[in-house]
Amino acid sequence: MSNVLRATLLSLVGSLNLGCASPGPPAATAAPSTPVMPADLVITAGVVRTMDPGKPRAEAVAVRGERIVFVGSAADTKAFVGPGTRVVELPGRAVVPGLVDGHAHLYGLGVALETLSVRGTRSAEEAAALVAEAAKARPRGEWITGRGWDQNLWPGAAFPTHAPLDTVAPEHPVALRRVDGHALWANAAAMRAAGVGRGTQDPPGGRVLRDAAGEPTGVFVDNAMGLVEARIPGDPPAVRERRILRAAEEALSSGLTGVHEMGIDDETAAVYRALAAAGRLPIRVHAYLAGEGRLEGLSGRAPDVDATGTAMFVLRGVKLFADGALGSRGAALLEPYADEPSTSGLLLMDREALARAARLVADAGFQLAVHAIGDRANRAVLDAFEALGPGRAAALRFRVEHAQILSPDDLPRFSALGAIASMQPTHATSDMAWAPARLGAHRLRGAYAWRSLRASGARLVFGSDFPVEEVSPLLGLHAAVTRQDLSGQPPGGWMPAERLDLDEALLAFTAAPAYAAWAEGQRGRIAPGYVADLTVLGRDLSPDRSLVDTPIEMVVVGGRVARAPAAR
Ligand SMILES: [Zn+2]
């Protein structure tokens, strides 16, 4: 049988299983009494947490091609073992559907991994030594950017000059921001590339530091940073590709089989597409175009549609921002900040702009994801979804990113509108130390309200927002079930009534992101016909601190072993 035909048949089986509302096991899960076509891969483990309500636990999974063909007991799975079958026996381990980060910045992680940190260096030479390492790793002429230096930690506390950077990287332009972001340290190659010299004027609000002869010394303050930074070229495809692959490896080793990539430009999307087409993208990426600037051109393009759930890259959405962040008091609140009554934050798009954007995205058939932290921003976004007319936001699976602080009046609107609540459990445990001061006790009731949202019938999708938070989805699971930080604080958890149980939290990292990516019935469950995206953990999960250091044993993406079992 051809692969295509097989995939089609299996996908048919998959959709039939999904459509089948009866809890009884589908025919394909019964132990075969007659010889069956051998599987390519059989995994037996301590437990398989299937997330399939009809059969929540099993011992073994058989995979053929890209899909799961059997889930059941270890004994019954033996029937699928043939001479060419790879058999992986992992006693005591736990298999779960491939974990998916529902809100991440994979490309952003790649950029962060490549942005040199010179933080904490004790001299200009020590910072230059780090630049020397970076220069070895990239071709001549490629810019090296970084940040974190602080001359106050260096002998003499004087600003550095371009000289130490010239010594280590004569042929790489180097631009390093100071730890506070308000000054830039450049080498001669960078100044040459930017056309900066003795004749360069200080721009308004900026200063070029100079020696006695009037030559720039290599430090550019405030608005003068733009003289150099504006000349840093856009990243070429080869650089973007390298960043994506590095970040994807990081994600894989954290146990992720997929991410929802929250806001990229067309150039990055093109690199993703090429990697996927060449079979080189190791995890699945469901991507959103970034920004208001792309709304006008949207009507002329079509969203990607992946009918089989097997595509590695799908560009189907648009990401917008309704407000800023709570930490910097940029989140738009209905009432003033409790700890700064002169402000209630700011909507980055006003109500009219949000409504217009929602309509443009809906008319183009794309999926809208809007960042909303404060209760005023969340209300404005829900209003914009509602204004599309009955059922429209639900049909297009529109999402609210973060949905962090909700007025109790708005909480049931997620379910009523069919809007997906895309939340990040670790944001709660990162923010809990200072969020009460910003919000005051009365507003905490609708803050990070996972349990309340779920009880109202809303769909919860969980993610990390990496690289803002750590990549590991286990940290998110831990935060979701404990609402404690890693040292176990506060005892009993922060607003513990909003905790989820382990299966609910797992659902938000598996089946729920599959739904948000139009792949329910194809991914997010371990059942016959489903795509074989699997995360194997070193031990079974329990809802406590042990979650965090559970080893990632093995990762399977589309039936392919993307990360092999650790050698024992
Ligand atoms: Zn984000």
From TrEMBL:
Gene3D superfamilies: 3.10.310.70, Metal-dependent hydrolases (3.20.20.140), Urease, subunit C, domain 1 (2.30.40.10). Pfam families: Amidohydro_3. GO terms for molecular function: hydrolase activity, acting on carbon-nitrogen (but not peptide) bonds. CDD domains: YtcJ_like (cd01300). Residues 86-561 form the Amidohydrolase domain. This is Amidohydrolase 3 domain-containing protein. It comes from Sorangium cellulosum. The lineage of its organism: Bacteria, Pseudomonadati, Myxococcota, Polyangia, Polyangiales.
